[in-house]
C-alpha cells in the first residue's frame, strides 16, 4: 500500500514507479434539482440544472478501465413506473448524450470497459447498463436489499431486478476494509495504491465513493457520488434540508446522521493539499469545464 495514514492525513509516498489513474468526466444527462430540497438557507424557488456526471478512469499501467456511475438513461420512460412518475413530478431530466455515447464519441466502446462501478442505484446514476456487455459491475453489497424482489415482481419497486448483470456483478463487503485518510473503510482496488473504493454510508444502501491517485507524486481526485447534492454542504455553509414533500425519506438521504458524518469526512479531505473533490451533480465544475479538456477524450488535470 503506497501511502502512510496518520489519522485524517493522507501522505503519499513519492515514487517514479507509483501507479495512478487518468480521470475524465463524461456527459451523462442533466437533472433539475430544487435547492430547497437539499440545503437549508436556499434561495426560495431556485432550481439548479445540474449534471449527472459519469467518470472514465484509466489505470496508468495495466490498461484497465473503470466507469464510475452511468448517469441517466436516455429512454428514461423505461425506468420502473414509480421512478418515471418521480421524474415527471420532481426531477425533470434532459439527456442529450448518455454515458455510453460519451465514451464512443471519445473513441472507446462501452464493450471495452473493464469495470462499471455504481456509487449507488438511484435512477440518475445507473444509466443504461446494457451497452457494457463485457464489464464487471462493482456495487456496495448492501444494495442487494433493494432488489428483493425488485421491479417487476414488485410493481411498486424503484429498482429493476435485471439492472445488475447476473454473473458479472461484484458485491463489496466493507466489513474488513481498511482506513485511509479521514475514511474508516476503504479498499485498495488494484492493490497498488492507485484507486480506493470508499464506503460512503448515509445516502442509500451500498453507497460508495472513489478516491483515485491522479499522479505518481501525490495528486488525488475524490468522486463523491451523492454524498452531497450541493457544494454548500461540503463547505459546511448549509445543512441538509429536511421535510420537503418531494423526499422519499425525511431528507435526500436514507440516514441523515450517517450522511452528515460522511460529509464532515469529505470536508476534512478537502483540507489535504492536492486533493480535488467532485460531486455527481457538480454544477460549478460542469459550468466551468463543459465542452473542455476535462471531458473525455481529455482528462481532468491532476492537482
UniProtKB/TrEMBL annotation:
Q: Which residues cross the membrane?
A: none
Q: Which CDD domains match?
A: metallo-hydrolase-like_MBL-fold
Keyword Hydrolase listed: yes
Keywords attached to this entry: Hydrolase, Metal-binding, Zinc
Cofactor annotation? Zn(2+)
The record's comment on protein family reads: Belongs to the metallo-beta-lactamase superfamily.
Q: What InterPro entries does UniProt report for this protein, alphabetically?
A: MBL_superfamily_lactonases, Metallo-B-lactamas, RibonucZ/Hydroxyglut_hydro
* Gene3D superfamilies tied to this protein: Ribonuclease Z/Hydroxyacylglutathione hydrolase-like
Gene Ontology molecular functions: hydrolase activity; metal ion binding
Query: What PANTHER family does the record tag this protein with?
Result: 102 KBASES UNSTABLE REGION: FROM 1 TO 119443 (PTHR42978:SF2), QUORUM-QUENCHING LACTONASE YTNP-RELATED-RELATED (PTHR42978)
Q: What's the source species for this entry? A: Pholiota conissans
Q: What is this protein called?
A: Metallo-hydrolase/oxidoreductase
Q: Which residues form the Metallo-beta-lactamase domain?
A: 51-281
Highest taxon of source: Eukaryota
